[in-house]
Design a protein that fits this description.
Elements lengths: L1 E5 L3 H13 L3 E6 L2 H8 L5 E4 L5 H6 L7 E4 L6 H13 L5 E4 L8 H10 L3 E3 L1 H11 L8 E5 L4 E7 L11 H12 L3 E8 L2 E3 L12 E7 H10 L9 E5 L3 H10 L5 E6 L2 H10 L4 E5 L5 H6 L7 E4 L4 H13 L4 E5 L6 H6 L4 E3 L1 H10 L7 E6 L6 E6 L20 E8 L2 E4 L11 E6 L4 H7 L2
Parallel strand pairs: 1-2, 1-4, 2-3, 4-5, 5-6, 12-13, 12-15, 13-14, 15-16, 16-17
Antiparallel strand pairs: 7-8, 8-11, 9-10, 9-11, 18-19, 19-22, 20-21, 20-22
Helix pairs in contact: 1-14, 6-9, 6-14
Length: about 450
């Protein structure tokens, strides 16, 4: 696939590297700053063009008429450039165009239709996607992160093993047999992240302290399974949000109706006034500095179930969450935009990290796969994504048992949804036409996975 990416900011840079690494793609990256292009070209196999992506001459130089996909991902402050570039790319012959926006108004149903009529196939707002990820992680769970499929009947949860976990040094096969025998619990561990490496575990795999475990369960199996892993369920009734950013505002607005106690702390008086006018009266707004631990204690941080740190400074978010942990907060969520800080944040004990760049790149990455992919989600702590496929009639995987197929290395099928039924995938599972299948895959394995479902 020939793909043109306009914008070498962090979202564009990561997306370019992701698509180049997955293989089989011809990538062209456009940006007006030569230094940014040189830095990316050193680590990724792609063509760079230094220029203005809203210039017809630049787009023609990039051979936009021959491209399969155009993505405008300049920074949030350059929304107009993304829109103009995408519209020009469409008029010049590119069949599918995508633009990053920073205005939530554009994403309403009527306005999306307006942009579709103009020729833009997809708009995405990274801050909105990040807010939705955070709200999803505030559900009743002891996992640091979770994704729901089939309205929650099938769940992918992420748990981190500490020094007190009862499963340390246990073999995966022994743990699975014991849990299945004692509780009749059905689950599958699809991956483990250890020291920055993503592992697809085999039967003899042994759990270690600080492992991040990705497991697929049925909804009713999650709570007893978490107990066996030494974790407790959490109900987020008292939530403190540090930072009145767009993310913080959207999270507060979405949870206000169902969460008894929501509080936002922001250092800008003007921002606090805007929030007080926009958000429901039940959301408490405090003008103060999230770096001030005494203020956090005064505002009741010790009684909070969850801290969501979404200021515009990654260091502040990380340190605030570390402080919250030391004060007894059960769950911490931090917006960490500096990619180099992600692993550091996890090593410092932060439960969940959110990175808009990675989430947005995963959303665009879906467009490079077949139309049988119904959704794609980025999972924190690993370079892998969760793909949801529909088994097509006549596809290579239809009618075959999982044990009999040579599924790509770096990918694993975790669960299946068939009509109203959801079940965990095992060796004898035979996939049928129209099954919805949850696949955990590294970017490098994704194109090979895609071929099985075509």
């Amino acid at each position: 696939m020939k793909i043109i990416i306009a914008g070498a900011c962090e979202v564009g840079s990561h997306l370019a590297k992701l698509l180049a690494a997955s293989g089989g793609n011809d990538i062209t990256l456009i940006d007006p700053v030569e230094e940014r292009l040189e830095s990316i070209a050193e680590t990724a196999d792609l063509v760079t063009i230094c220029g203005d992506s809203s210039s017809i001459k630049t787009l023609q130089e990039a051979r936009v008429a021959r491209a399969d996909l155009f993505v405008g991902v300049h920074s949030a402050s350059q929304q107009h450039l993304n829109l103009a570039s995408a519209l020009l790319a469409k008029k010049l012959g590119c069949p599918k165009v995508v633009a990053r926006v920073s205005n939530e108004e554009y994403l309403s149903y009527d306005n999306r239709i307006l942009f579709t009529d103009m020729g833009i196939d997809l708009l995405f707002y990274p801050e909105q996607i990040a807010a939705q990820e955070i709200v999803g992680n505030l559900k009743n769970t002891g996992a640091s992160e979770s994704l729901d499929f089939a309205r929650g009947r099938l769940q992918l949860s992420v748990v981190k093993l500490d020094a007190d976990s009862p499963v340390l040094d246990a073999r995966l096969i022994d743990f699975s047999r014991e849990i299945s025998t004692r509780f009749d619990i059905h689950f599958r561990i699809v991956a483990v992240s250890r020291m920055g490496e993503t592992i697809i575990p085999g039967p003899d795999f042994k759990f270690k302290e600080k492992d991040t475990v990705y497991l697929v369960t049925l909804r009713e199996s999650l709570e007893p399974l978490l107990r066996e892993l030494g974790l407790a369920m959490l109900e987020a009734r008292h939530v403190m949000i540090l930072g009145g950013s767009n993310i913080g505002r959207m999270v507060a607005g979405q949870i206000a109706a169902t969460t008894p106690d929501v509080k936002i702390i922001d250092k800008s008086r003007d921002v606090c006034l805007e929030l007080s006018e926009e958000l429901p009266a039940s959301v408490k707004i405090v003008n103060g500095d999230a770096r001030n631990t005494d203020l956090l204690i005064e505002e009741g941080i010790r009684n909070c179930d969850v801290i969501v740190a979404v200021t515009d400074n990654a260091e502040t978010n990380i340190l605030a969450c570390v402080a919250a942990k030391s004060l007894g907060v059960t769950k911490t969520i931090a917006d960490v935009e500096n990619l180099e800080y992600l692993r550091l944040a996890e090593e410092m004990g932060i439960d969940t990290t959110i990175n808009r760049k990675l989430i947005a790149a995963a959303k665009v990455f879906r467009l490079t796969l077949s139309d049988k992919v119904k959704s794609i989600q980025y999972m924190n702590g690993t370079n892998a994504e969760v793909l949801e496929y529909v088994v097509a009639e006549g596809s290579h995987i239809a009618g075959k048992s999982l044990k009999d197929i040579d599924f790509p290395e770096g990918a694993i099928i975790g669960g299946v949804i068939r009509g109203t039924e959801a079940f965990i995938a095992v060796g004898n599972t035979q996939l049928k036409t129209y099954d919805r299948v949850m696949v955990f895959s590294t970017p490098a394995a994704a194109p090979a996975v895609d071929k099985w479902f075509k």
